[in-house]
Amino acid sequence: MIIKLKKLLYIYIVLISAVSFSQIQETDSLPINDDDYVFVKPGDTLVVNLNEFSLLPKHKFSSREDVRYYLWFRRKVFRAYPYAQLASERLDSLNVRLEKIESKRKRRQYTKIIQKYIEGEFTDQIKKMTTTEGRILIKLIHRQTGETAFDNIKELRSGWKAFWYNTTANVFKLSLKTEYHPETENEDFLIEDVLQRAFQEGKLKPQPSKLNFDFTKIIIERKSEINVEEYKLFFSKMRKKGKIRKAKD
Q1: What is the pLDDT of residues 194-223, one digit of tens each?
Q2: 15 phi/psi in degrees, rounded to 5
Q3: What domain of life does the native source organism fall in (predicted)?
Q4: Helices 149-156 & 159-171, crossing angle to 10 degrees?
């Protein structure tokens, strides 16, 4: 039985489907461009080189292969971030508008109008996302709005709706309750690293997080070490199952 998922994340203002795209198989290839990175072997002393216009130190990779996985992951963040950014903007605008509407009925009507508008505008793009991109998007929702996707749906729709959407997400090993903790979670640290560097390089439009963490302190504590082992394992399993092939470019 094929489960069609629609209206999962962006159901409240901009997130209508954080799980429908999880039905897409990971078919990404790993980039081979690993120029301008520093490689430090175990036991070596880390030397932090600051670029002229950057406050972030060079990455510390164990091998050139790790760079390819990092660049693959960066592409995932770049794809998911604009939707989380828009979610935050829409939520802020919606809240400002709702404060001026006294009638509960009119509030519900206005919310539904916004949901339908966003659904028609972004459903096709979001459905093309992969599971990894969906997981990143769910985490970025928490980063950008200060609330998990589950709590946002619960607040603007109902606890019952949020429960069933999350249950559906669990089928695809996703959870709308997932939070964003770059200070403790490796994947979240990688996401924040990608974002901060992209902001400084002008590749993504900066939008401050509504969560309280100090990334400068975090990256110093981690000594700029990049850990991509979980993605290497993921690709290895996928290749064994014959679902993806190792690309040469």
Answers
A1: 999 999 999 999 999 999 999 999 999 999
A2: -95, 105
A3: Bacteria
A4: 150
